[in-house]
Design goal:
Length: 513
């Protein structure tokens, strides 16, 4: 493997972004740096076309050259396995300076490295508004005794046209440019077009894609429309003088993703299209999987919606049953069951609106607090509920038991902290997401629990449900203790009194399944 035309990166400044390096070492203005950014966003296909590593050099204020960006080819083995961004040029520095000073493309041998491999550099001036602002360097190992095939010759011709555009400042394109991050690469398939949109070359992979859509004829010498192929990206790119990315269905069941880049020649009367490069990739199977995932997601949400409706029906039936009961204990038990069922229905309602298999917990907590305000307080004991934090997103199979636990804790806070006839008070719920764990604190300023209270020894149904769900279903921990003054102050429930009471429940559950 050849050594790069740069100094040892261990002896240079730490790597950073292209913009930071350019500002730190050169006198380029922001518009120049933006031009280089656009080049860096576009040049992956250039490395593929020339089968070589590309490095972008900027001249520093003390006339040295620093590498500010680098890209490797997907069509050939890279010459540099190490990133050299942020390093100083040594081999080939004179070539870089000459290309910049003369605004000319220079190809020259680099100094022979230790392993004896012959390496060459093509220094290409990067111009903007008639000024050379950087040098784009194509660097590769020379392999003698091998002639170029048709594909390599065609790719080289296309690359050479882009080289001229870079030198004259017409590439990269200014203004709005289609995102190339998800666009096809050269290895996916290449069509070369002339100024009239006539096909001049088709790569083997592009030819295979044409065959899959039913085009068996030789496309060379024909326009895409004459072949029955969608030519919208080509027409738009040629008319707008900018790259166009478009996904379209061709034939009965084939989906293609294409990117057309116009080849532009700068004239006195303005830029003129002299050809185009069309990259295409068959994304049929990928889109089929996307549609299956969307269908699965829609089905899951519909199931949650139906479960919510069924739970609401059960809740309504239980409320009707409760009206016929005369025993106060039986009526209270049914009402508690209705409240728990409504909590579970609320979770399914939220899941029916959320894509994916997790949910923002705050979207469940807020409705739970509204349910608590409606069902737990009374005029003679007003209780105000507040929530802080959002708790992040949690898995769906955690949301249901956690919501039931929170409902039970809210009911316990009201029933035991603010008995009938009391002046009421406040209950605060604090949510914190901490390294794949959700911490929940429920704090009230009610009469509090006894100093020796033991949650594990509690025999009440509500706390028994809480303890079982937390330790078995959620694999979490829970603690209940009397509130300290600092707890009430942190929850903004204190009034400055040193004789305040209250209860704190601290709950922690994992959010990674």
């Amino acid at each position: 493997m050849a050594h790069p035309a740069v100094s040892d990166p261990a002896e240079s400044a730490a790597m950073t972004s292209m913009a930071d390096l350019s500002r730190q070492h050169s006198s380029l203005d922001q518009d120049d740096i933006d031009h280089l950014h656009r080049l860096g966003a576009e040049w992956a296909f250039l490395a593929d076309l020339c089968f070589a590593d590309l490095l972008l050099y900027v001249r520093s204020t003390d006339a040295k050259w620093v590498v500010v960006d680098q890209v490797r080819p997907a069509t050939n083995q890279t010459m540099y396995v190490t990133d050299y961004i942020g390093t100083w040029a040594q081999r080939g520095a004179a070539v870089l300076s000459q290309a910049a000073d003369e605004n000319t493309i220079i190809e020259a041998d680099l100094d022979t490295p230790d392993d004896g491999a012959r390496t060459r550099m093509m220094a290409i001036p990067v111009a903007r508004n008639g000024r050379v602002i950087a040098i784009l360097s194509k660097e590769w190992e020379v392999r003698s005794g091998r002639t170029l095939g048709e594909l390599e010759r065609s790719y080289k011709e296309i690359f050479d046209k882009f080289v001229v555009m870079i030198q004259t400042g017409t590439f990269p394109f200014a203004g709005r440019v289609a995102d190339s991050s998800a666009a096809p690469r050269v290895g996916d398939g290449v069509l070369s077009l002339d100024a009239d949109g006539t096909v001049t070359y088709v790569s083997p992979n592009a030819n295979s894609a044409l065959h899959r859509v039913g085009i068996q004829a030789n496309p060379v010498g024909m326009r895409l429309a004459e072949l029955g192929f969608h030519d919208g990206p080509v027409r738009q790119a040629f008319e707008r003088l900018e790259p166009v990315v478009e996904e379209f269905e061709q034939g009965a069941d084939v989906t293609l993703l294409s990117r057309c880049v116009p080849l532009v020649h700068d004239t006195e009367s303005g830029p003129v299209v002299v050809g185009g490069l069309m990259l295409m990739r068959d994304v049929t199977e990928l889109r089929k999987r996307d549609r299956l995932l969307l269908s699965k997601d829609a089905t899951i949400r519909e199931i949650h919606h139906r479960v919510k409706n069924n739970l609401q029906t059960i809740s309504s039936l239980l409320r009707l049953q409760a009206r016929r009961l005369t025993n106060p204990e039986a009526k209270a038990a049914v009402q508690e069951s209705v409240r728990r069922i409504r909590t579970i229905a609320l979770v399914h309602e939220s899941l029916s609106r959320e894509p994916g298999e997790d949910i923002a917990f705050i979207e469940i907590v807020r409705p739970l607090l509204r349910l608590a305000e409606e069902g737990l307080q009374s005029p003679d004991r007003p209780v105000r509920f507040t929530v802080t934090g959002d708790g992040g997103r949690i898995p769906a199979n955690t949301a249901t038991p956690l919501s039931v636990v929170l409902t039970e804790l809210l009911q316990n806070a009201v029933d035991h902290g603010f008995p009938e006839g009391s002046a009421g008070g406040q209950v605060s719920v604090a949510l914190t997401q901490n390294q794949h764990r959700l911490d929940v604190r429920v704090i009230d300023n009610g009469r509090g629990v006894a100093p020796g209270f033991d949650l594990d020894a509690s025999t009440g149904l509500g706390l028994s449900i809480v303890r079982t769900l937390v330790t078995t279903e959620l694999n979490g921990t829970i603690d209940m203790r009397p509130a300290r003054t600092q707890d009430l102050d942190d929850a903004k429930l204190g009034d400055g009194s040193s004789h305040q009471h209250g209860t704190v429940v601290e709950l922690s559950v994992p959010t990674v399944v």
